[in-house]
Amino acid sequence: MQVFFSVSILLLSMLAYCLLGKAFCIKCRFRPAVPEIFCIGFFLYFAAFQIVAEAMILTKQRLHVLGAVWLVLLTAGVAAAAWIVRQDAQPDKSRLSHQKAAGGGSRLAGAGRLLFALMGAAVVCECATAVLMQRRIGWDFAYYIGNMATSVATDTMYIYDGSSGLLRSHLELRYALSSFYMNTAWISQITGISALVLQKYVAGVLCVLLTNAVVYSFAMEVFHRDQKKAAVLVTITIVLTIFWDVYDTTAQFLLLRNYEAKSYCANVVLPMACYLLYRLWKNSAEEHSWKELFLVAFASVAVSMSSLVLVPALIGLMLLAHLLVERRWDGALALRGICCMMPNVCYLVVYLAFTRGLLVVEV
User: Fold this and answer.
1) What are 328-339's pLDDT values in tens digits?
2) Which pTM value belongs to this model?
3) Pseudo-torsion of CA 296, 255, 149, 185, nearest 10°?
């Protein structure tokens, strides 16, 4: 029964991400491929969830309060997104012609359908491989599971230590500044499904799907909207991931530790940021790319604390590279880049204040 409910939660999550992502794209007036919409919805979800969850974590609210409030807000948000998508679905000749020109409205024939079928089969195999390879639970993950299970059992958030179960003297902001694991905790509390099952299998499979969605989106950009080449690249990437059995690679993070936040950072957040920076390198005046980059940066810490420095570092490197290549200072580009870096910078200031003992949230 837990397997059935877990699959249902995965499908409902994917539907919510697609609706939220589609509504975001409509409001920003651009129409990417479906996999990119899926990724945008994921980041939009965690950007919004972080705002609600962090306010409740830092004020030491109960987990069930977070679950109830977020469920209401999420339902309202998804309903609003569905309404926006439905309104946009009205026939529009100019929109349809734009989609066709961008490659979004064309239908695949023969070889194209075969390539997409192979890609779909490869994705399913990779998901199955990732699930079957969940034979290792390291100390890190045992601690994360302990945090989630303890939060569900005590109806608190980061109040008790995940390994010992003892009451903390203060909130450990190294973990509490990210709401990623509390997202699993509130779902576990409401549904009664074990946090271990949800995190290892639902979050693990979702990481694999999001990773391939980012690869497909990147390929569509590099290959100028050629869906066949994008499908081939995704399939090749999956084959290399499955058979390149080396531990110290993002591939092994994807197959063995895809349930951890740092795996989302390595396989979803950073590749997505690189993809958007590549688009901005080609056309820095693309408004929707800047909005999408800001969204990814804003949600990056919510997904993984490992993104705290890595995402602004990537943006900073792009700004520096642009300055060196163009040999001129672009004030507008620098301002937009700095704006995208600001959410992570603010988190970093808070975290450094915590490590120096200047900011302590007592329990």
Assistant:
1) 888 889 999 999
2) 0.92
3) 30
